[in-house]
Design goal:
The chain is an all-alpha fold and about 260 residues long. It contains 13 helices and no strands. It has one domain. It starts with a helix and ends in a 6-residue tail after the last helix.
Length: about 260
């Protein structure tokens, strides 16, 4: 299992490096903007209050000029979770579907270990990459926090990181499940990406569209983002729902993969 875990990292190291650099660049750019925000708080706050209420609700611009408000709006309510979803979703979708796409599934299944252990090894690799990227982002924010004179507690940053990890793990689980049912990596990635974007859109518009109220308790983005972790700390219930949902999807994926009729081109 360890060999497969390492192989999964090795197979994806280029994309992992690219996403790591992208995440660092995104965070660094956003953090570099903050001094201009903090130095003009009153003027900017007046400008934001002139925005239509609908826009402020969609982008959740609570206390935008503070450290927690700025990071919540610019990074932890969208950018960082979406990067984790993209990476975890790609690794999860590729775990089985890519092997069938590339014609290597038969070779993989000749290894003297069960299908379940093969998939579990890849699941551990995907889970670990989501966690590593999330803490890479946390470290980047902590390092730049002092440079841009931003006031925010490390504990609150950790809470935001935990929520982002939980969201990433949920959609990683969904990706494994879709990949186990599909024979195409592209289809699996497309479905996971679509589900993530739709749930995020519904969450963003829920402040305006009352018709979404009945489904919001079942929206994974609601579980991860509505607790405002950078202000209130870890939303334990929401994070547990996300992690539990991801684990259920992974267990289902293992059961499906065990019974799947593997095909190769």
């Amino acid at each position: 299992m360890i060999a497969l875990y390492v192989k999964t990292w090795r197979d994806h190291w280029r994309t992992l490096l690219a996403w790591s650099l992208t995440l660092i660049a995104l965070i660094s750019i956003q953090m570099s903007i903050y001094p201009s925000i903090s130095e003009n708080k009153e003027a900017l706050q007046g400008f934001l209050e002139s925005y239509p209420e609908a826009i402020r609700k969609i982008f959740r611009m609570q206390d935008y000029t503070s450290g927690p408000g700025f990071l919540s709006t610019e990074l932890y309510s969208m950018m960082i979770p979406l990067v984790l979803i993209a990476v975890g979703g790609t690794w999860g979708a590729a775990a089985t579907a890519e092997e069938e796409d590339e014609g290597t599934a038969d070779l993989l299944l000749t290894l003297p270990i069960s299908r379940s252990r093969i998939l579990i090894s890849k699941m551990f690799a995907a889970i670990s990459v989501v966690i590593v990227l999330a803490f890479l982002g946390l470290l980047n924010v902590i390092v730049l926090r002092g440079v841009v004179d931003m006031e925010i507690e490390t504990a609150k940053l950790l809470a935001g990181t935990i929520s982002s990890i939980a969201i990433g793990l949920f959609f990683t689980g969904v990706a494994f499940l879709i990949g186990a049912h599909s024979r195409s990596k592209g289809v699996a990635v497309g479905v996971v990406t679509g589900v993530a974007l739709i749930t995020f859109l519904i969450y963003s518009l829920s402040a305006l569209v009352d018709d979404f109220d009945p489904i919001m308790p079942y929206n994974p983005m609601q579980w991860g983002l509505s607790g405002m972790p950078l202000f209130e700390g870890v939303d334990v219930v929401g994070s547990l729902k996300l992690v539990a949902g991801g684990l259920v999807a992974m267990i289902w994926a293992i059961m499906k993969f065990d019974r799947k009729d593997i095909s190769t081109p």
